[in-house]
Amino acid sequence: MTKNHESDVAFIKALAELLRENDLSELEVSREYGEDDALNVRVARQLISAPVAAAQAPMQISAPHSPPALAPSSSATPQEDPAQDPGAVTSPMVGTAYLASEPGVANFIAVGDTVDEGQTLLIIEAMKTMNQIPSPRAGTVKRILVEDGAAVEYGAPLVILG
C-alpha cells in the first residue's frame, strides 16, 4: 500500500471536502487495488452547531438561510418527530434524494397517493449510483419530508405513509 500512499491521502482529503461541501456527517468508501491490496476509508464529522431537532428534519437543514417567519407556519407540529411516526420510511443511506426519475418527469409519489408494497417512493443517489427506495408496505402518502435534490442522512425520515 505504500505505492498508493500519496494518492490515498489525496483521495481521503477529497472525501473530507465532499463531506464539508455537501453538509454530510459521514462517508464510507472501499477501493480495491488488487487481490491483496485495498483501502477502506470512513470519514465522519460531528455537527456541533446543528440542534438535534434540525438534524432530524431535512426540510429545515436544506434551508438554513430561511427567514424566521417560516418557522411559525410549521408550528402545528414542531414537537412531533417524523422519524418516530409509525408510518415513517427512513433513508437507508447517505446521499441525495430525488423525487422523480429525471428532471421534467412526474414525481414517483405525491401526498394523497396510494402506494403498493415495493413501489418506488423516490431515488437516493449515493456515489453516482441511483438507489430506488421501495415502499415497505401498502398505504397512503401522508407527508413527503424531503425536497427534490436535498442531501439526506442515514436514518432520516423521507416519507410518512398512513
Automatic annotation (TrEMBL):
<dbReference type="InterPro" id="IPR050709">
    <property type="entry name" value="Biotin_Carboxyl_Carrier/Decarb"/>
</dbReference>
<keyword id="KW-0092">Biotin</keyword>
<protein>
    <recommendedName>
        <fullName>Biotin carboxyl carrier protein of acetyl-CoA carboxylase</fullName>
    </recommendedName>
</protein>
<dbReference type="InterPro" id="IPR001882">
    <property type="entry name" value="Biotin_BS"/>
</dbReference>
<dbReference type="GO" id="GO:0009317">
    <property type="term" value="C:acetyl-CoA carboxylase complex"/>
</dbReference>
<feature type="domain" description="Lipoyl-binding">
    <location>
        <begin position="86"/>
        <end position="162"/>
    </location>
</feature>
<keyword id="KW-0443">Lipid metabolism</keyword>
<keyword id="KW-0276">Fatty acid metabolism</keyword>
<comment type="function">
    <text>This protein is a component of the acetyl coenzyme A carboxylase complex; first, biotin carboxylase catalyzes the carboxylation of the carrier protein and then the transcarboxylase transfers the carboxyl group to form malonyl-CoA.</text>
</comment>
<dbReference type="GO" id="GO:0003989">
    <property type="term" value="F:acetyl-CoA carboxylase activity"/>
</dbReference>
<dbReference type="InterPro" id="IPR001249">
    <property type="entry name" value="AcCoA_biotinCC"/>
</dbReference>
<comment type="pathway">
    <text>Lipid metabolism; fatty acid biosynthesis.</text>
</comment>
<dbReference type="InterPro" id="IPR011053">
    <property type="entry name" value="Single_hybrid_motif"/>
</dbReference>
<dbReference type="InterPro" id="IPR000089">
    <property type="entry name" value="Biotin_lipoyl"/>
</dbReference>
<dbReference type="GO" id="GO:0006633">
    <property type="term" value="P:fatty acid biosynthetic process"/>
</dbReference>
<keyword id="KW-0275">Fatty acid biosynthesis</keyword>
<feature type="region of interest" description="Disordered">
    <location>
        <begin position="58"/>
        <end position="90"/>
    </location>
</feature>
<dbReference type="Pfam" id="PF00364">
    <property type="entry name" value="Biotin_lipoyl"/>
</dbReference>
<keyword id="KW-0444">Lipid biosynthesis</keyword>
